[in-house]
């Protein structure tokens, strides 16, 4: 199968090398070097400098590549603005979308597909930190912000950076079955099916997004006092605002309700404790502000996609 990986100046190296390694390992496991033929297609010829500074030689460009591709994946970039592309590339992608069996993106490569009009009315995902921007630029996209990867017909999109490996592995399983995919996953020391979704990012990062000092103050209070009363009335009082105004401003500043932020903060801390401590689940639930284990388990499963006990089994040191 002929796999094309589209790259451009400033691309994220792992968006290209990750899927390439998965397909190469699958070919090695099959004992057939030709099972997957991977080539880098550049938006310009020669050596492309990646976002980390390393350079990659392209095999062809969008102007010179010939023949039919089986799968085409578009790499992303840490700088979303670098993903702006011209009409020539848009037309090439539109043409490829009609001939390839699979068209997809890794991380913010979804912005390139969106600019070409290939995400309209389709289910898709991207890096969690860029979901809002992708939605703003492509309001017709049906975004699934917590998914590791999304398949909608022959359109495949994946979340941030390492999720490109998950996507490529899913394609290997689709092509050759679970046994081969499992052998590849074992060799590359990765999950066959990664537990949970993109919610494995820190609420502490979200605390940095608020601009108004009152909201930052509330966020910092939440992160430091997870066992305290963190109801809207209490937080609004802390911010010196009415409950209605506080809820409105908090959502405008952070993109989530106060209750959602509190839950994210508590579950994020619970994740760390599940990874690092052997505390019983009931005690751990109390440590992060839950009155009972059932409420904690429901919230954890809602946010992470697996139960606390399963998460500990997978990630405990």
Task: Give the SSE map.
Layout: E1 2-7, H1 13-30, E2 37-42, E3 47-49, E4 55-57, E5 60-61, E6 71-74, H2 87-99, E7 102-105, H3 110-115, E8 123-124, H4 131-137, E9 142-143, E10 149-152, E11 155-158, H5 163-176, H6 178-187, H7 203-206, H8 213-224, H9 232-239, H10 243-254, H11 258-276, H12 281-287, H13 293-304, H14 308-315
Helix pairs in contact: 1-5, 1-6, 5-6, 8-9, 9-10, 11-13, 11-14
Describe this structure in words.
- The chain has 317 residues and is of the alpha/beta class.
- The protein has 14 helices and eleven strands.
- Strands 5-2-1-6-7-11-10 form a seven-stranded mixed beta sheet. Strands 3-4 form a two-stranded antiparallel ribbon. Strands 8-9 form a two-stranded parallel sheet.
- β10 (149-152) and β11 (155-158) form a beta hairpin.
- It is globular, with a radius of gyration of 22 Å.
- The protein starts with a strand and ends with a helix.
- The model has no long low-confidence stretch (mean pLDDT 90).
Task: Give a short synopsis of this structure.
The chain is α/β, with parallel strands linked by helices and 317 residues long.
């Amino acid at each position: 199968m002929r796999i094309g990986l589209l790259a451009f100046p400033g691309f994220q190296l792992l968006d290209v090398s990750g899927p390439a390694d998965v397909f190469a390992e699958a070919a090695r496991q099959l004992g057939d070097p030709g099972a997957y033929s991977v080539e880098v297609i550049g938006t310009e010829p020669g050596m492309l400098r990646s976002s980390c500074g390393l350079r990659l030689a392209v095999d062809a460009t969008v102007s010179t590549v010939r023949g039919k591709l089986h799968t085409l994946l578009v790499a992303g970039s840490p700088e979303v603005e670098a993903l702006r592309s011209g009409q020539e590339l848009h037309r090439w992608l539109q043409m490829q979308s009609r001939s390839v069996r699979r068209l997809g993106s890794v991380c913010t490569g979804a912005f390139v597909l969106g600019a070409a009009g290939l995400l309209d009315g389709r289910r898709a995902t991207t890096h969690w930190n860029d979901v809002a921007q992708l939605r703003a630029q492509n309001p017709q996209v049906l975004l699934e912000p917590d998914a590791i990867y999304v398949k909608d017909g022959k359109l495949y999109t994946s979340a941030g950076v390492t999720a490109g490996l998950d996507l490529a592995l899913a394609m290997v399983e689709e092509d050759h079955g679970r046994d081969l995919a499992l052998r590849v996953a074992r060799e590359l020391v990765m999950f066959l099916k990664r537990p949970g979704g993109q919610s494995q990012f820190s609420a502490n990062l979200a605390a940095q997004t608020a601009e108004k000092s009152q909201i930052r103050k509330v966020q910092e209070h939440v992160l430091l006092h997870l066992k305290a009363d963190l109801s809207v009335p209490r937080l609004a009082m802390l911010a010196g605002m009415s409950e209605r105004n506080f809820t409105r401003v908090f959502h405008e500043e952070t993109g989530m309700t106060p209750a959602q932020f509190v839950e994210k903060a508590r579950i994020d801390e619970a994740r760390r404790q599940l990874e690092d401590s052997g505390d019983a689940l009931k005690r751990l639930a109390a440590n992060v502000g839950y009155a009972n284990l059932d409420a904690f388990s429901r919230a954890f499963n809602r946010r992470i996609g697996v139960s606390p006990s399963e998460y500990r089994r997978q990630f405990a040191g």
